Amino acid sequence: MDSNGVAETPADIRREIASLEKVKAEIDHRISALRVRLTSYGSVNGNEVANSSAPRPEQTLLSGQLSPDMIYRYSRHLLLPSFGVEAQANLLKCSVLVIGAGGLGSPALLYLAACGIGCVGIVDHDVVELNNLHRQIIHTEAYIGRSKVESAAAACRAINSSVQIVEHREAFRTSNALEIVRKYDIVVDATDNVPSRYMISDCCVVLGKPLISGAALGLEGQLTVYNYKGGPCYRCLFPTPPPTTACQRCADSGVLGVVPGVIGCLQALEAIKVAGAVGEPLSGRMLLLDALSARIRVVKIRGRSPQCEACGENAKLTEEQFCNFDYEKFTQSPLSTSPLKLHLLPSEARITSKEYNERNLKGEAHVLVDVRPSHHYKIISLPKSMNIPLASLEARLSEVSAALAREEGHKKDDDNQSASLYVICRRGNDSQRAVQYLHKMGFASAKDIIGGLESWAHDVDPSFPTY
Amino acid sequence: MQLTLEFGGGLELLCDSVKIHNVNVEPQAEGKKLTMKHLLSWVRTNLIKERPEMFMKGDTVRPGVLVLVNDCDWELSGQLETVLEEKDAVVFISTLHGG
Ligand SMILES: [Zn+2]
Q1: What is the ipTM of this complex?
Q2: Is A170 within 8 Å of A176 (Cβ atoms)?
Q3: CATH superfamily for domain B2-94
């Protein structure tokens, strides 16, 4: 559109979409609220008593407290002999808290809302980002930059306006954990880091809530139910936290979107079994999914450990102990998902991406080594950089020397400085490790580029892709 | 003794990214039984190609690694003392935290 003769820009369109989306979300929210109020009169489809001229006979609601609309909506559940009215009525009376509205939480929330869990709570402090959408299928492009909880809640209400959706737009911490979890019957752990997993498990032990725990990374997934009817808790299985180097994150190692999708669906399934009181929940067993080889293995795991520091016989964790426990210190990892920032080098061994850009533009003779793994290098790299992954640096030092010698050869005669050596990686951690090693091996002038390619994209070239 | 060893949850990266290894391991001494303790040191010597500290700590697996003997947690069969039989399947899996 070009109504006033003023050229319209994509930014204008985006702004208008954003403002309309906001209005739409508010209207949706009001409609959902009205629908819920309507449900309390017995119907949402316009067939309620008030509109009917004939007096409605007294209804006897058999075994479940299901309204006519609920009977229609959940009819396929009710028709299942092994589920039926009783299990459905159990779902409607149950409340489930999903911690994390990401790759696992997305499908879990969609199914929990759709199946008629009476009250679904969502905890997350994050906002929706474009690189989430390949796996966090509850969110849409329209919600980029907005709260994940707000986005997930709107999607759940759109599917089922008759369930109560509670938004907890905050980080899950020991300071609010007890207060939040206390209100729910079942907890779904859909988080992405080690300290949260210990904290959520301990919180569930303290409050006696069953915990449906899922995890996914790369092409593998894991699922189990903790603290259910005398079964083990997370600490029974993992009394000591793993070394931080063993804790990979999706943001570093990658994840095939559908893998957390499968695990999240299975988490919904286990939550439905526990809530509906049907079947055998996956307690004392663990499901292992290997997506590449299409294998699902269910293994038997240990039971509750009498020595467990959370649920063991001698060490019943109290609410106060829980609140004072430092999970970040215990696991040596941060609760927030912000990436690690190392400081290994003195400032004279580092330069900013802007400075590197200036030196490069001036034509300074130099070698730029990119120490990321080669599959990262293939995504995007700086021109003239050479890829020597950190893991193979030791074996390929001669290539660095050869490249430096080549640069020395190209130098102008009046330049008596030797060629410089710069090291870059994705965020500026591995480059520091590499420079530390290079210094040790005699490359005294090696410098790392602070903040890596992310800072290049941020400070030098905004069109440089990040991932 | 024929065994099938499997590495998962990222541990396969320590052995050339190969997940399944069909191996032949003999007990420490003639007439003795093969235990998990001996198998672990065998794996460390023969299969682990890098960062052994990501696999073991002391004489056992590092924290965060589940060991399954024939799809059963080794805690239930005696951990390091578990006695292995011909054609047993042993799985080493690192617990995942992502989501
Ligand atoms: Zn426990």
Answers
A1: 0.96
A2: yes
A3: Beta-grasp domain (3.10.20.30)
